[in-house]
Every structure is written in structure tokens, then in C-alpha cells.
Amino acid sequence: MDAQAEQGKKYSFRVRAVTAEGPGEALESGEVLVAPEVLPGPPPPPAILSASGRSVTLSRTAPRGPGSAHVPGYLIEQREKGRSPWVAVNRQPMPEKKWTVPDLRQGCQYEFRVTAVAPSGPGEPGPPSDAVFARDPMRPPGPARDLQVTDTLHAGVTLSWAPPDPQDGDGALGYVAELGDSASLRWSPCHAGTVPGAAYTVKGLRPREGYFVRVTAVNEGGRGPPTALDTVVQAVPVSVCPKFLMDASTKDSLTVRAGDTVRVPVRFEAASVPDVAWLKDGLPLPKRSVTSVKDGLTQLLVPAASLADSGLYTVVLRSPRGEEATHSFRLRVAARPRAPGPILLREGTLGSVIVEWAPSPDEADGRAAPLHYTLLTRSSARAPWRPAAERLHTCRFTLVGVLPGHEYRFRVVAENELGASEPSDTRQPWVVPRQPPGELRAESGGPEAARARTRRATALPTRLPFGVAPASSTGRARGAGAGCASWWPLKSVAGDKVDRDQCFSENRVFYSQIDANLQSGCQKRQAIKSDARFLAFTSF
Fold first, then answer.
1. pLDDT at res. 24
2. Which pLDDT score is estimated for 3?
3. Strand ranges across the sheet with 56-59
4. DSSP characters for 74-103?
């Protein structure tokens, strides 16, 4: 080797033999490139062979690649895990493949790395080793205890166990769960690494296929004896009875308008898809009603609902094991009522008119919504309609206070919760004729006139309000018992109601009379026969 050759240059060499007679012919070589020196590559991480409270024994592997063919020695470095810098263990390269690092602090965790040193110099350091604690060797743990299956799923099982007994070995740092095929009896881990806790769910099992299960506790000292179940485990879902999922939107009764589309969703829960049946009044649904079942939801669809669709609907869930759950609700299809029939008017007593009308045809239909009537009046063909009575549940009403000489027109409409019907109107207005003045004078005075007024006042109209004297008048109310000729003061009235509770008792008949001094003069008011609860006055 020519020590004077420079790295990176090309050289040719010539060799000539020299004897006593003189030099011979020269032998010349081709061009030769003097390559630069190559450093060794980084060695692999050292392996941990053993550890104690004061030392760790390692083994190393030679690097590969250019410059690694002839490595005379290696340097070792150490550091506590997570700390820097690296500290040299040996100052001179050592050729040994295994060595022990002494003088470590007990309980600390260390990492190690190796650097190859060639004649041309040290190479790059290798990656660090696995972290290892400087402590005395651990005993393998004992077997896991109380292994059991706590839950079964459609494609998995959940296992639980208790830690090993401390007297059987050192504590477990983790666990390994394994499955064994019932046919091949080969064990395979259910997961990568170890399980830190004392429970694990094994997934990806074939439903209803048998498996053997075992659990092994592990620590740095190795694996303990495995604990296996004595019986075969199957991935079978736990039987759950089907049930309905009710919330605030679930109703026991639904009312819809005729012609509307009805959609009723019902949610349920079941371990497996149950058989779902819909019934109406205990019988199968009509053909035009449609039902569907998907992902825990069944739905009823009724297009263009009619009155015939009203009834009690029931949903029945039936599991493969025969377990049932039912949910019922009532559907009522309603429409605006039809118009009442013709109106009949009859003259009542003491300035009243009796209004009667034929009921709406929907009143006799048990499937229709409950209805009531509203009576309206107006005084002329162009005047607005005004309610005279509302929410009537009969087809008759007595209107009092009808003034002589005035026209009255009547209208009746039927109403329910969905709206009002078309009106039914009287064809001709009702007119009360005026009384001749002579008849008024004949009846205004004397006992004979009082008896005539008594004969006319034969009945009080129903729902007649208690009488009120005009607000601008002052006067006295007088009363007398039936068949009595004497009158007595009841209460001074000036726009107030007569106190009937203080003046009358039940089931007795009285007559009353009010003398009112009006601003325009004195006007008599006719006494009207009443029961003990009602009293009314009519002017004439």
C-alpha cells in the first residue's frame, strides 16, 4: 500500500524486476482509484438479557453495510429514560458481544445504545434499546382468578376476571386473552400486546359457534399459568323482550281532518327483528292502509283519510320466542259538520219567540265529532249577524225581549272542533205586531187589569237574565206572595239588580212591580211571573 497516495485520485502502478545483469521489462497496471475511508454504520439496538437492582446485561449485533466488515470494538452509552445526554459506559472500544453495565441506581429506568469503532473512526450510534428497570428479577404472576362471561353479543363476548393472588407471584402488569377453536384446539391471542385491566370484550366471533377462552397474567418476570373456562362460549345475543319506545310525542288519541294523509310512526326495541302486525278494531287493516318496518321503526300510512278510517288501532310485536308487546291508539277522522235543517219559528209568551230547527245529519253519526249550535240574529237584511246564543246542545231556543214592530231574522250554524257548517237561515223575517193603544189603557189599572196580566204571565222563558232597572232611574221594587193583595218594598234600585236571594225562597211564586221615576216622566213596568231564582221585567 502506498501511504503517499491521496484519497479520491486515480493512479497507475508499474513493477519491474531487477537482477545483477540489470532491470527487466516493466509490468504496468491499469488505473486504480484510491477510495476514501468508509466509517461503519449504526449497529442495531442492543438486547436486554437480564437486569438486577444494580446492573443490566446487554448483547450487541454487528452493523451492516460498507465499512462494517472489520470492526475491532464498540462503545456503549447509557441514560435514564427521557433524560439526556448520553453517558459513556466504556472509554476504550470493546470487542465482546455481551457485557454487563454496572453501578446503576436501583429502581431507575435506563436505555442503552452502541457505536461501532473502525480504524478509520467511530460510526453513527445505533438506536436505543428498550427501556429496562434496574431492579431485581420479578417472579412471574400467579393465575388470574374468577374468569367468567359477563355478557354475550351477536358477534362477541365480554370477559371479566380478578387479579392473581399476591402469594402466587409478583403483581401482574397486564393480561393476555386467548381464544381456542373447538375443532382445532389451537390458541390465538384476541388482541395485540396486553390488556391493562381485568375485563375485555372479544369481538369478531361467528354467531352461535363454540369457542374456548383463557386468560394469562404477565409481568417482566414472564407469564403466569393460564386460566381457562371449563365450558364452550357462544356469541349469542341475550334475549330481550320487544318493547315500544314512548316519548312526549306519543299520543293515545289522534284527530285528523277528512281527506288528510295520516302517518303514525311507532318506535320499538328488540334483540332481533320481530314480527310486526297492525290491527284496526281487532281486525286486519283495510287494503288501502299501508304499513312499513325498518330499523326499529314501524309506520302506518293512510292516504286521504275518511270517516270509515276512525277506530282503535293496535300494533303487535312478536319475538321469535313468542314474546309479545302491544301498543294501541284511537284515530278519529272528523270533518266540518253539515248544515242544520230548516228553522221553525213560534210565538212565545210575553214578548218572546221560540226558535226550533232540524238537527245536522252528523248528529246521528256516531263516528262524527261532537257538535253544538250557534244561533245568530239581525234586524235587517243588510245588518251584521250577531250571536244570540252559543254552544247550544239542543235544537230549540227561546229568545226574549222581542220588541213589537221590529223585524228579526235568524240563522243557525253547527260547529265542531274543525270548524262551522254552512248556515241555515229563515226565509222570512219574524215581526211582532204592535198592541193598540186602547188595550194598553185597559190593562194599565185596576184589579181586573192585574188579573189579566197575571193570566198572560204564565211561564218565564228559559235562561232569562235577572231584571235590571235603567241606570238613569230611581225607584222601589215591591213584591207580593201568590194570592196576596198587599205589596212590600224589596230594595231600592238605581241601575242595580234586585237581590233575589234575600227576597225569595225556593219553590214559591211571587209577583213584583217596580215604580221608576224616569227623567222623561213616570212609566209603569209590568210584573212578570217567575220562580224563586229568576225575575224579569218587560216594558209596555
1. 83
2. 63
3. 47-51, 56-59, 98-101
4. EEEEEEETT----EES-SS-B--SEEEE--
Region of 321 on the Ramachandran plot (φ > 0 left; ψ -120 to 50 alpha; else beta): alpha
What are the mean pLDDT values of the chain's consecutive 10-residue runs (540 residues total)? 68 85 84 73 90 90 78 91 87 90 90 88 90 86 93 84 91 92 81 92 85 91 90 75 85 87 90 87 91 90 89 91 89 88 88 91 77 91 90 93 87 90 90 64 46 41 34 36 36 38 33 32 34 33
Closest CA to 48 of 141, 162, 133: 133
* Distance in angstroms (rounded) separating the CA atoms of residues 409 and 201: 84
In sequence order, what E strands does 306-402 have?
311-318, 324-334, 343-347, 353-357, 372-378, 386-392, 396-399
Geometric angle at alpha carbon 296, from 292 and 299, rounded to 5°: 30
Long-range contact pairs involving 56-62 (C-beta distance under 8 Å, separation at least 24): 56/100, 56/101, 56/104, 56/110, 56/112, 56/132, 56/134, 57/98, 57/99, 57/100, 57/101, 58/98, 58/99, 58/100, 58/101, 58/112, 58/129, 59/97, 59/98, 60/97, 60/98, 60/114, 61/97, 62/116
Helix (H, G, I), strand (E, B) or coil at 511: strand
C-alpha cell at 419: 270548524
Residue 539 C-alpha cell reads as: 216594558
**pTM beyond cutoff 0.85:** no
pLDDT confidence of residue 161: 95
Integer Cα distance of 175 and 203 in angstroms: 17
Q: What's the confidence (pLDDT) of residue 520?
A: 31
What the block records as the C-alpha cell of 217 is 397474567
Q: What is the pLDDT of residue 298?
A: 93
Name residue, grid cell 439496538. 45
Angle in degrees, CA 360, 338, 424, rounded to 5 = 70
Q: Are strands 324-334 and 253-257 parallel, antiparallel or unpaired?
A: parallel
Q: What integer pLDDT is reported at residue 35 of this predicted model?
A: 61
User: Is the bond preceding residue 85 a cis peptide, omega within 30 degrees?
Assistant: yes
To the nearest 10°, the Cα dihedral for 266, 269, 272, 273? Answer: 0
336 sits in the region (left: phi over 0; alpha: psi -120 to 50; else beta) called beta
| Amino acid at site 85 | P
Calculate Rg over the CA atoms of the chain.
56
Among 515, 536, 516, smallest CA distance to 457 is for 536
Edge-first strand listing for the sheet containing 521-526: 488-493, 474-481, 510-518, 521-526, 538-539
Contact 371, 392 (CB under 8 A): no
Instruction: Report the alpha-carbon distance of residue 105 to residue 247 in Å, rounded.
Output: 65
CA–CA dist 80, 331 (Å, integer) = 77
Residue 27: all three cell numbers together = 509490468
